[in-house]
Amino acid sequence: MKVLGIETSCDETAAAIYDGQAGLLSHRLYSQVAMHAEYGGVVPELASRDHVRKLLPLIQAALTDAGVQADEIDGIAYTAGPGLVGALLVGASVARSLAFAWNKPAVGVHHLEGHLLAPMLEETPPEFPFLALLVSGGHTLLAEVRGLGNYQIIGSSMDDAAGEAFDKTAKLLGLSYPGGPALAKLADSGTPGKLKLPRPMLDRPGLDFSFSGLKTAVVVALRNVELTDSSRADIAAEFQQAVVDTLVAKCDRALEQTGFRSLVVAGGVGANRALRRALEQLGRRRGVQVSYPRTEFCTDNAAMIAYAGYRRLAAGERDDLKIRATARWPLDTLKEPKRLGSVIPAQAGIHPDQQDGLPPVRE
């Protein structure tokens, strides 16, 4: 089965082709970072308009790269949420329209499910069950992942996500957009510990996170520090170390609590080198396998959407003709699909004779 994946949840426009037998055939991505840098953050209306301009050429490029014709596509997967609703609508509208025009099944994919399954695209994918740390600009959570659609969140941020705290702290230090990668780069030339910052919520039981207080601690610290290139680097290094220490400590607790022998790290902050080094040390100490997607698949991409969509389409799942775009969509509301082979189930509440006549999914 060949699946076209489409991603437009925020400021990355992406398309990819995944084949159930041959694996990932192609992936294309256009980043809007340069456009939004002028404003210091993502402008939703501009993001949506740019998706409209870029998506169809990217889809054609992905098909060409894969050496696949439109009539060889067996299904279409698109990000249905969560994300910026205008941006989501662009991808959903294009995906649903192509599915109708090509007479193929389509399925809306949860963006975070795509991130959780992104390591499955690697040569040595993790096996279920595993503990997942999903850490990005919009989300920070720990989840038990027992299978496709079987996710139990056991810890999450009570305020800012880790990536959001990186971006806000970078802005306090006068760094350019996007702030997270800029702060991580600056931290490489600094020394953690010269300025002491808190490790949020490590003095309390449980697996939840809080990063807004850490950002506030940076604000307070800046009042008493003369900002030089050296002091800015030291602050960046200490901030990064505080975030890393917090994430690693909570992963340690979660591994102890669940007894899992596998840890998956996903999301944009999962590309942070200091975090990866610390988690690899944790893995060695506990005898736990630590898995990541390749760096380019840590941030938003269509390859993970194509793969997640493939898994759900192969299980017999598909959407009706409605265009799905859900700005807020809790991960733990997803359902584990029933294995139905090539049979497409009747849509809930709709008589089979009234369905849209799309063909069954082919393996």
TrEMBL record:
Top-level taxonomic group: Bacteria
GO cellular component: cytoplasm
CDD domains membership: ASKHA_NBD_TsaD_bac
UniProt keyword terms in alphabetical order: Acyltransferase, Cytoplasm, Iron, Metal-binding, Transferase, tRNA processing
Domain Gcp-like, residue spans: 24-307
Annotated localization: Cytoplasm
Gene Ontology biological-process entries: tRNA threonylcarbamoyladenosine modification
Record-listed substrate binding positions: L134, V135, S136, G137, G138, D167, G180, N272
PROSITE patterns to which the protein is assigned, alphabetical: GLYCOPROTEASE
Residue positions binding Fe cation: H111, H115, D300
Reactions catalysed according to its record: L-threonylcarbamoyladenylate + adenosine(37) in tRNA = N(6)-L-threonylcarbamoyladenosine(37) in tRNA + AMP + H(+)
Segments of this protein annotated with the region Disordered: 340-363
Enzyme class of the recorded protein, top EC level: transferase
Record SUPFAM superfamilies: Actin-like ATPase domain
Cofactor(s) annotated in UniProt: Fe(2+)
Details of cofactor binding: Binds 1 Fe(2+) ion per subunit.
EC annotation from Swiss-Prot or TrEMBL: 2.3.1.234
GO molecular function, one term: tRNA N(6)-L-threonylcarbamoyladenine synthase activity
Similarity comment text for this entry: Belongs to the KAE1 / TsaD family.
Known function: Required for the formation of a threonylcarbamoyl group on adenosine at position 37 (t(6)A37) in tRNAs that read codons beginning with adenine. Is involved in the transfer of the threonylcarbamoyl moiety of threonylcarbamoyl-AMP (TC-AMP) to the N6 group of A37, together with TsaE and TsaB. TsaD likely plays a direct catalytic role in this reaction.
Protein name: tRNA N6-adenosine threonylcarbamoyltransferase
Organism: Povalibacter uvarum
Taxonomic lineage of the native organism: Bacteria, Pseudomonadati, Pseudomonadota, Gammaproteobacteria, Steroidobacterales
